């Protein structure tokens, strides 16, 4: 593997991890910075979301009642094809809500992501498959 390919893989992995850590920290600006403007997203069986701003707004609404949350992400596959890449990310997250602070909700799933190199690597497509939600 060339040094350029290794750097791309590290940069892509960093982008994917920043997705979860930005959500956990409530850093919507940081989250927006790693999403392509024309993002296509779908979370579980929810309606498709088009556009990075719409996705950030959806995430903000979905996490508004979060007292705390914590994503565990593992990047399993990264395939790079020039200025495009695909990645498989396993996801387990824990979240407590202000409305039920004594209960921790667990979500297990997979992200299937597409990324594009713009001014850095950006997530251009995000499909979250929900395997289990408690």
UniProtKB/TrEMBL annotation:
Highest taxon of source: Bacteria
InterPro entries xrefs: NTF2-like_dom_sf (IPR032710), SnoaL-like (IPR037401)
One protein family per Pfam: SnoaL_4
Record domain SnoaL-like: where: 5-125
Name of the protein in question: SnoaL-like domain-containing protein
Origin species: Actinomadura vinacea
Classification of source organism: Bacteria, Bacillati, Actinomycetota, Actinomycetes, Streptosporangiales
